[in-house]
Amino acid sequence: MTFVMNPLLYPAVIKQGKQLDFHKFSDAAASTTFGFPAVNTGKFPGLSDKIQRSFQLLQGCALNSLTLKMTGNLQLVLKQDFLSSNVVGRECDWRQEDLYEFCERVMFEATFLTLYGRPPQTNMDVHTQFHRESWIDVLLDNFRRFDAMFPLLIARIPIVLLGRIKSIREQLIRFFHPHRMAEWTNPSEFIQARTELFNQYDTLKDLDKAAHHFGILWASVGNTVPACFWCLYHLLSSPKAFSVVQDEIMGMFGEKEPETMTREQLEKLIYLESAINESLRLSSVSMNIRVVQEDFCLRLNPHCSVCVRKGDIVTLYPQSTHLDPEIYPDPEQYQFDRFVENGKMKTEFYKGNQKVRYYHMPFGSGATMCPGRFFALNELKQFFCITLLMCDMQLTAGQQHATMEKSRAGLGIMPPANHISFRYRVKKCLQTQGL
């Protein structure tokens, strides 16, 4: 494995799309992790390209309808799970929660409803001898168990060696069985298109299709949930950041929850976007992997070439850029406005006297950038707009600072290693309206 650590050399690697490929590697890794047959085997001609094209439905004009749905679902989940009188008692009372679990529950359920629609309640709830569990509780619990083993699955540890994870993965896959999904109401255009695409291939079994849908669930929340945690934790830890971002949100939407929230409005929230970018800079510990397709000499600059062999792996490690003091002064410090300059988003960063093209890479780089990045950034903005408008929030005093769980290094956004508690209550202006 060859690591390229100098960000000024990244463009030379990223532009080598044919000789340095990511898709075959990701296809093999996703196949073993989520339990569907590899796409690039010749058994499913054209499927890989069609899957890539389907991601366009998470961008551009299609993002408008997703934004509208996500707004409603975030408000719904917050009200029914956290802000109703059945949960908090008197509306003026403070309620204490684990910060990560709060972010996880809200983002997991709201994202699921936005992408997949709503299953029929009566058919999906799980009845045990003692009580009835909501389908979303069962799904989230199984997802947590699977996600805990995700680093080992990506490392190609056989799933039969991982205890009950094979059984849990089977339950997760069966949740997305086509016969079940056919009964779900209001799925996104993206999921509908993927369903229609999979139905074009007779060689894809029903459980193969279900496994693909399960893989998208993980892709949509596996990194978004920890990203949400760090963004909210940093805002609550910095009174100035919280005040500036909250004022910006209220200046856009007023002091009560908005009935609608457009992509254009979200794009104007530059301090919120900067705060999110800064949290992603500090918490993203991913690797950008490329597999060498043929023996060749990789020319990094006019004075440096590296000869690599077919099958070798060339890796970019963006955290070395994110923590480079030449690019980001005081790189380990959270500065919510680091990405704002002269009232606009700052897009030029330098190492020495040279402009750094790839200075912020939480979503990857080049043709292999996360295709759902626009949706992910949008839903993070929506989460903060809605929670900050609906809730008063404070970190619990006297607890340790949050630290990162290093066991997932190289795989994306690190979750916290320790529990962080906070308290919240319904904003006074909302109490008079009634939730």
TrEMBL record:
Its cellular-component GO annotations read: endoplasmic reticulum membrane
Please tell me whether the keyword Lipid metabolism is annotated for this protein: yes
PROSITE patterns linked: CYTOCHROME_P450 (PS00086)
| Subcellular location(s) per record | Endoplasmic reticulum membrane
- Give residues annotated as binding heme: C370
Q: In which pathway does it act?
A: Lipid metabolism; bile acid biosynthesis
Name any cofactors this protein relies on: heme
Instruction: Give the UniProt record's GO annotations in the biological process aspect.
Output: bile acid biosynthetic process; cholesterol homeostasis; cholesterol metabolic process
Does the record's keyword annotation contain Heme?
Answer: yes
- Keywords linked to the UniProt accession: Cholesterol metabolism, Endoplasmic reticulum, Heme, Iron, Lipid metabolism, Membrane, Metal-binding, Monooxygenase, Oxidoreductase, Steroid metabolism, Sterol metabolism
Alphabetical list of InterPro entries matching this protein: CYP450_sterol_14alpha_dmase (IPR050529), Cyt_P450 (IPR001128), Cyt_P450_CS (IPR017972), Cyt_P450_CYP7A1-type (IPR024204), Cyt_P450_E_grp-IV (IPR002403), Cyt_P450_sf (IPR036396)
Residues annotated to bind substrate: N223
Alphabetically, the GO molecular function entries are:
heme binding; iron ion binding; oxidoreductase activity, acting on paired donors, with incorporation or reduction of molecular oxygen; steroid hydroxylase activity
Which family does the UniProt entry place this protein in? Belongs to the cytochrome P450 family.
Check the record and name the PANTHER family matching this protein. CYTOCHROME P450 7B1, CYTOCHROME P450 FAMILY 7
In its UniProt entry, what is this protein called? Cytochrome P450 7A1 isoform X2
- Identify the taxonomic lineage of the organism of origin: Eukaryota, Metazoa, Chordata, Craniata, Vertebrata
What is this protein's gene name? LOC108270649
